[in-house]
Amino acid sequence: MRDKQIEDLKDYKYGFSTDIENFKAPKGLNEDVIKFISNIKKEPKWLLDWRLKAFERLKVLKEPDWQKPKYPKIDYQDLYYYSAPKSFKDKPKSLDELDPKLLETYQKLGIPLNEQKRLNGIAVDAVFDSVSVATTFKETLTKQGIIFCSISEAVQKHPELVKKYLGTVIPLTDHFFATLNSAVFTDGSFVYIPPGVRCPMELSTYFRINASDTGQFERTLIIADKGSYVSYLEGCTAPMRDENQLHAANVELIALDDAEIKYSTVQNWYPGDKDGKGGIYNFVTKRGLCKGKNSKISWTQVETGSAITWKYPSCILKGDNSIGEFYSIAITNNHQKADTGTKMIHLGKNTKSKIISKGISAGFSDMTYRGLVDIFPKATNSNNFTQCDSLLMGNKCGAHTVPYIKNKNSDSNIAHEATTSKISEEQLHYCQQRGLNPEEAVGLIVNGFCKEVLQQLPMEFAVEAQKLVGISLEGSVG
Amino acid sequence: MEEQLKIDFEKKLKDFSYSDQEKKFKETNFKKFLKHGFPSRKLENWKFSDLNQIIKSNIGELTFYNDYKKENQIDKIELISELEHNIIIIVDGKIEKIDFKFEDQDKIEVLVEQGEETIKENINSLINLNNAFTNKFCKIIIKKNYSLKKPLVIYHSTNKNTQFKNTNSRIDFKLEENSCLRLIDIFNDNSEKNFLNIYYNFELDKSSVLKNYKIDKFINNNIKYSYNNVKQEDNSISETFILSSGSKFFKNEINCDLLGQHSSAFVNGIFDLDDENHHEIKSNINHLVENTKSYQLVKSVLEKKSKAVYQGKIFVSSEAQKTDGYQLSNAILLSENSEFNAKPELEIYADDVKCSHGSSSGSLDENSIFYLMSRGLNYKEAKKLLINGFLLDVIEKITDEEIKNLFKSLLGVKE
């Protein structure tokens, strides 16, 4: 019975794809495609110019090669940069008007898009391929003055906000993939929380890559104005595909005076099969700017999917007394590769940061924690604490820790510690003695190992994440 | 610079009648150096210290040719009086004197012919530079079951009128089974603005013990780079201690290959920096077989505009189960302008291991100072006492009593 269950789980839970006729831009990366994207989204001229500027910059940039996981060369001319479900050209007014197949897909994924889910208090801005499908809970949010919509909608309705903040945290001149995103981003979420407002619910987006060969280039922009609070959830699943799919998203967070942003991610994209074939390339740039005094940005991530994960959610602590936090669980199995970590840039006085990273690697996988803590000369009285622990299962996998620690201020303190070990025989023996089988025992111990991070997740996510941790490691013991 | 290099290298080759093999070895290395030049920030290993830049701003244009035909004066070099010792004196990269006066002469062999196997060199461009311009080959072999009675002290010095020069020196050591060598390096410069490039090769046979202590205490304006390449067989022990303090710039690189079971490597260091000095320790400990152990401890006290960098790497291959690796670095920043950078790195491919590292940096603990002052010490005394205790931790790691006391007197720390 159990064996059957495991067998079922081994195959990717969300591996299915829906047949919707796709509306695509021509293949390739050139000015015309960028103009096409901009045109189809009815974007103002300044945004098109901005995209083109990014494209100019892209021409001189090279793909970074310093990261640990290497990947086959991507032919950027062989990708589609825009695709939208065809039936989508005229926006649906309500859920009933949606393509039934689309709804079906969401149901399988368990996305709370329908009425009963409203009771759970989650507003959903679901992204199917590249265009937002529907946004619920708008009314409740609008009442408070909160703007939660797709970024294309924001460009139309709130151009002043988008123009003011877009690209202020991740500039056009950033690294290759961030700039690529700036040139060809299609859609994503936009959140604005007005001064003094505490967002009454967790905002959530499910991303989903569907059309074959379509790299997804999401752009998310979250602005928390003075004294506001928002918690944002991002969860990812993708259907089973043979070719590697590129995903290069940009996420920008801006927290003004006394504001707080909590950003949680559960990433469970298709990791490729047991032999490392297929799977998503997840090259994401996430960066938060604590612009105002006493602001706070907190990143929490559970990374279990993708063939290659390469992301460093960072905090720039510019405002005095600002706080940056990073909690991460990264699990790699089979032939997955992850190079993840964070950057904490301390610029303001009395800034604090905390990094808790837990890495687990099994099978033939490779896990790297790469982090930077940089305290600038003017950041007096700043503090950082870093802890990164790695767990190895078997001697075919690798766990690496590459922290960069820079302290240029004598009144500031940095503490860093890291350990690498395996699950101790005693712990396993103890659990098995109490009647658990080896897999359950490992699941229990790993969950304990990750507890510090799991606790940071909002309730809805924590349960899902806990299950995910167990599923990801199935078949790695023995 | 390239023109100068080529001219100097031609001169160099004419100086001696090198064998064809040696000539070829020098030429390949020279070509490699020409291709890569001095390391810059672009290399991961030199991220925190751009040697290219440092040479440019502190020295300017370097010349590479040294006249090794003339004898250098060595009687003016100050020898340490605290303990009896054997002597090697290197002036401007030339070995002027080798004197094992306290030892049985048949237990130590000095080779001057370069063997075939040492020719494969592909570490970094500075080693290429070293190989191209070093004087004569020198290999010291300590025979089986022999422990040197007294430590060997190598004095690294420069001539009074040597300036804007690059000097290169290389010594190979082989410790045969069950032998023991205590080696002290002392840097004692007589001139300024030179770039000293020192390269040691150690082969440690079964159960041999190497203790290497590097003392860079005298204040000088030279730039130094030292590379220790250690290969260890079963049950061997290597202990490296670095006191990094006096030079303008000093980078110590230790590469340790633990090739035999139950071998262990210890790297400890103190940065005691002042003014605008910039020092670095980079360690690479490669655990390649089962049951090996490594331990590293580096402490820094940084004054004024000084900068210290510690890059420690522990590599564990997939065969190296039961590895025990530990790494700790602490730094006290005493001035607003001082800087401490660390990159403690773990690269692990085996699961049954115990590897950890810790790093901290910050100011002196105000509470401790308050406590001491409330006991009647003034601020200066309290500070001194705390730093004393902080550094003593590392000095206690020195396993040789005699040398431990030498270090204590050098640093002025008390128990």
Mean pLDDT of chain B: 87
Low-confidence stretches of chain B: none
Q: What oligomeric state is this?
A: heterodimer
Approximate strand percentage of chain A: 25-35%
Number of domains of chain A: 1
Taking the alpha carbons of the first and last residues of chain A, their distance comes to 18 Å
- Could you tell me the number of beta strands of chain A? 24
Order of helices and strands of chain B: HHHEEEHEEEEEEEEEEEEEEEEHHH
Our count of helices of chain A gives: 12
Main sheet record of chain A = 10 strands, mixed
User: How much helix is in the residues of chain A?
Assistant: 10-25%
Instruction: Tell me the number of helical segments of chain B per DSSP (H or I, 4 or more residues long).
Output: 7
Low-confidence stretches of chain A: 86-93, 114-123, 128-134, 207-214
Described by strand count, sense and barrel closure, the largest sheet of chain B is: 10 strands, mixed
- Strand elements of chain B, count: 19
Outline:
With 478 residues, chain A is of the alpha/beta class. Chain A has twelve helices and 24 strands.
Description:
The complex is a heterodimer of chains A (478) and B (415). Chain A has 478 residues and is an alpha/beta fold. In chain A, helix 10 (425-433) crosses helix 11 (438-454). In chain A, the strands form three sheets. A ten-stranded mixed β-sheet of chain A has the order 4-3-7-9-12-14-17-20-22-24, with helices on one face. Chain A has a six-stranded parallel barrel with strand order 13-15-18-21-19-16. The radius of gyration of chain A is 22 Å and the shape is globular. Helix content of chain A is 25%, strand content 34%. The model of chain A is unreliable at 86-93, 114-123, 128-134 and 207-214 (pLDDT under 50). Chain A contains twelve helices and 24 strands. The longest helix of chain A is centred in the C-terminal third of the chain and has 17 residues, at 438-454. Chain A has one domain (2-473). Chain B has 415 residues and is α/β, with parallel strands linked by helices. The longest helix of chain B is centred in the first third of the chain and has 17 residues, at 20-36. In chain B, 20% of the residues lie in helices and 39% in strands. In chain B, strands 2-1-5-7-9-11-13-15-17-19 form a ten-stranded mixed β-sheet, covered by helices on one side. Chain B has a domain at 365-415. The model of chain B has no long low-confidence stretch (mean pLDDT 87). Strand 23 of chain A pairs antiparallel with strand 18 (339-348) of chain B.
